[in-house]
Structure formats: structure tokens, C-alpha cells
Amino acid sequence: MVMQFVDNFLTTLYKTVIAENRWRFYLEGIGNTLMMTVGASLIGIVLGILIAMIKTHHNNSGKMRFLNWLCNVYTTVIRGTPVLVQLLIIYYMIFSSASSSAAPYIAALAFGLNSGAYVSETIRGGIQSVDKGQTEAGRSLGLNQSQTMRLIVLPQAVKNILPALFNEMIMLLKETSVAGWIQVVDITRAGDIVRSRMWSFSPLLVSAVIYLVLVVALTSVQRMIERRLAASDRS
Amino acid sequence: MIAVNELTKAFGGNKVLRGINETIEQGEKVVVIGPSGSGKSTFLRCLNLLEKPTSGKIIFEGYDITDPATDINKLRQKMGMVFQNFNLFPHLTVLENITLAPVTLELMNREAAEKNAAALLERIGLSDKAGAYPRHLSGGQQQRIAIIRALAMNPNVMLFDEPTSALDPEMVGEVLELMRGLASEGMTMVVVTHEMGFAREVATRVLFMDEGLIKEQAPPAEFFSAPKNPRLQDFLAKVL
After folding, report:
1. How close does chain A come to B82, measured CA to CA in Å?
2. Do B90 and A156 count as a contact with CB atoms less than 8 A apart?
3. What distance in Å separates the CA atoms of residue B76 and residue B71, rounded to the nearest whole number?
4. B:139-168 residues touching chain A, CB 8 A cutoff
5. Helix (H) or strand (E) holding B56
6. What is the DSSP string of A57-106?
7. Cα B76 to Cα B38: distance, rounded to the nearest angstrom
8. A133 pLDDT band (50/70/90 cuts)?
9. Is residue B19's pLDDT more than 70?
């Protein structure tokens, strides 16, 4: 009974992953998923910092009204519509003439634009969590606003921001699974392609396991960083 | 040195300062007292523009600090400020706290700034804490370091916003001691405090603020022994 189960399992695994070089699909999928996740994270962080700075500066000084308004429109639209719709609009309407080989990069851009709206709130929250007295102390010593932000506020905000950024990255990793809609072979799409060739659903389980392993790996990095940050509080 | 003219400040509809006129000369030690909510901290914070006045003028060493064209960062370098909650930078060591501004603003190179910081730490007997982080220090130690952090900029005036209010009673003495030392060296000081003993002993002039106005001012001997304003008489009766 047990032997038969193990035998069945191994046979299915062989058919799902190794036969006809099917692992190549998964490998391509992992590559594209990771590229989109990392690319989108970087775009999201840069965009998020920019938006958070503009909003914080506007709140503190009342300046940059137009840019602040623009940021508000951006975050409202991004957070108010599904990421898949955004992806389709960006791919079919904005980059309608792009070649299909560019699709993974366009997807990374779309996910990055999406992530930026969420990351900006995370970063803004992190900046706001730093006591106002810190800014006042910096300014009272004659430091200007950007020096105070860079040398005093941001280094303290990072501690609150980093864990949330990792959460965002984990979410992104899974969100990229909709990239198959624009023919990107990511982990989900890879499983789906193999499924359609095998007439079996087992490839979807392989996709799921790959995601799970990646997320668990990311989570353990997150834990490690949180432990380090906590340790620097105690020392 | 500082001239305040018809200064008002409102937070929304709440008028905290209702027209302050005051001149502070070089070398004066002005102590501001008054009930909470009287506007004394707001007044002090307007002097270096941490609060933006609603109307009125503040002239510091000939520059109108309320004029948007004035480089306030430059003027703040000459006005040290000490806060109730110390506001040391928790992510920096004591030494880095002291040297950050002079080095960033290129008033001194790192070596000179560290030498200066070491001398200041020596003066307050905390040389051994140079590499420590603020959270490992007592409140009294933190506040004394906050004071020398401001002194490291070589300010012409020091503003103190209730510097001992957040301290445990046994640590008040060491902070006041340092402030006395500064006063005796001729530093111009504006001090918002509830320490009447300090006011009596160190102040050249005591201001009583109430309801957003300076209701009475006098040298300490006269101020404490012969108060004229009934609100001040009432206030002194409660705190002395």
C-alpha cells in the first residue's frame, strides 16, 4: 500500500518535472517570477520613497501642492483598481507595439508602479513614526530639512519600514502570478503549460510548492533582519 | 540681541500668544515662568522659528527671522536649543550626536569637531560615555549631553524649554548646575522653567506669562518679593 503510493508519487513527479525536459518550463518560470519580483520591488521602493518625501514635505511645509495632488491621484487610482487590470492596460494600451519578449519587463514595470503606491504609505508611516522632537532637534542645530531627513529621520524610520517592505515583496512574489495573462512564462504559467500537455493537474502542485519554498526563504531572511534590528536595540 | 515685536501665534482658532513685545540683550539670563498653557513654550519656540508666528516680528542680531528671505538655518546655528525631552539622536553615539551638526554644516572638520566634543564631555565629566548610545544614559546625563550638543555650535544664545521637567528629582541638580555654569560664563540665556530657585538665583530678569501675554517682569528679587499682578501673586502663592 505504502510502497505503491510512493511508487505512484515518484512516477507522477517524474512525468511532471523531468520527462520531456519539462523542468525547463519551471526554471524559466522561476527566472521570470524572480526577475519581476526584484524589478518591481526596486521600482516600488524608489517610487515609494519619492512619493513619501513629497507627501511628508507637503504636510510639513504646505509646499509642492501640485506634486502632492498628483501623488494622491496616483495612489488612489492604483489602490482602487485590480493589479491585473493595470497590467493589461499597461501592456495592451501603453506598450501595444512592444515585442512579446519584452513582456516580462513590462510586467515588472506594471507591478512596480502598483507596488509604489503601497510602499509609499509604508515609508510615510515609518517616517511619521519617528518622534517629531528628532526633526526639531536637527533643525534647531541649523540642519536643513533634507539633511535632517537623511541623517536623523530616515535612519530611524528604516527600522520600522524594513519588515513591512519584506511583506510587500512576499505579496509581490505571489501577485506576479497574473503575468501569464500577457504571455509571460512565470511559475504559474509554467505549471499551466505542463498541465495542458500532460492532461493532469499535478504540475499546479509543483508550482505551488515552488512559490511556497520561495516565500519561506524570503520570510526567513525577513526574520533574520528583524532579529538583527531587535539586537541593535538591546546592545 | 533678540527683539520681539507684537508677536502673536494661533493654532487654528486658539490664540496662544496675543501680542508679545520683548527685548533680550546680550548676556541677559531671562527666565520665563507661568502656568501651563500660558504660551511660554510657544514663545520660546517662536524665537528660533520652530513655531511659525502668526504675526509680528522677531529680530535676531539684526536679521528678521520671520522674513521668508532670511536663511533661518544659518541663524539657528547661533541659537542653541534644549528640549524638555532631550531629543538626543538615538541611532548615534554620544560623540556622533555632538559632532553631527558642526561636521555636516562644515563648520569644523571631523577631527576638530571630535576634539571639541571631547573637551565638552570632559567638562561635564562624561568623557567615558563618548561611545555610548543615549538609551544607556540616565535622563540627567542625556540632558547634559543635549546641552553640550547645542554648545558645540558655539551659539550666541541658548534657549531652554523646560529642561528639567522630564527628569527624576535627583537628576535636576546636575542639569541646573551645568546651566548655572553657563550663566556665569556670560552666555545669553532664555529659560522656560518651573524651577523657582534657579530663577531667583540665576536670572537677571524674570518674565511672568499668562494667557499669551507677558503680564509682569522684574529682576528676581523684586519679582518674587513684591509681585504686583494679582495672577502672579496667585501663581507664586501656589508654587512657592
Report:
1. 8
2. yes
3. 9
4. 146, 149-150, 153
5. strand B55-60
6. HHHHHS--HHHHHHHHHHHHHHHHS-HHHHHHIIIIIISTT--GGGHHHH
7. 25
8. very high
9. yes
Region of poorest pLDDT, from A29-43, A158-172, B21-35:
A158-172
Cβ distance A142 to B50 less than 8 Å, yes or no, reads: no
Q: Which of B74, B90, B101 sits opposite A141 (nearest CB)?
A: B101
Domain ranges of chain A: 30-180
Q: Looking at residue B149, what is its pLDDT? A: 97
Q: How far is the alpha carbon of A51 from chain B, nearest alpha carbon, in Å?
A: 25
Residues in chain B: 240
Look at A78-82, A96-100, A108-112, B172-176 and tell me which has the smallest mean pLDDT: A96-100
CB contact (8 A) between residue A131 and residue B87: yes
d(CA B189, CA B209): 17
First-to-last alpha carbon distance for chain A, in angstroms, is: 57
Of B73, B89, B105, the CB nearest to A134: B89
Give yes or no for a contact between B42 and B8, defined as CB atoms under 8 angstroms apart: no
Binning pLDDT at 50, 70 and 90, where does residue A232 land? low
CATH of domain A30-180: 1.10.3720.10
Give, in order, the Cα–Cα distances in Å from B206 to each of B43, B176, B193, B232.
14, 17, 11, 12
Cα separation values, A135 from A3, A55, A231, B144, B159, Å: 68, 16, 25, 19, 17
Q: Do B76 and A147 touch (CB under 8 A)?
A: no
Query: Is the model's pTM score more than 0.80?
Result: yes
Number of Cβ atoms within 10 Å of the Cβ of B69: 6
Q: Tens digit of pLDDT for each residue in A160-187?
A: 898 889 999 999 999 999 999 999 999 9
Q: Give Cα separations from A190 to A119, A185, A196, A214, B123 (angstroms).
A: 29, 6, 10, 16, 70
Tens of pLDDT, residue by residue over B181-219, are 999 999 999 999 999 999 999 999 999 999 999 999 999
Please check whether residue A147 touches B, CB under 8 A.
yes
Instruction: Mark which residues 88-117 of A lie under 8 Å from B by CB.
Output: none
pLDDT of residue A100: 83
ipTM confidence = 0.93
Residues B171, B175, B178, B179, CA torsion sign: negative
Please classify residue A78 by burial: count the beta carbons closer than 10 Å to its beta carbon, then call 0-12 exposed, 13-18 middle and 19+ buried: middle
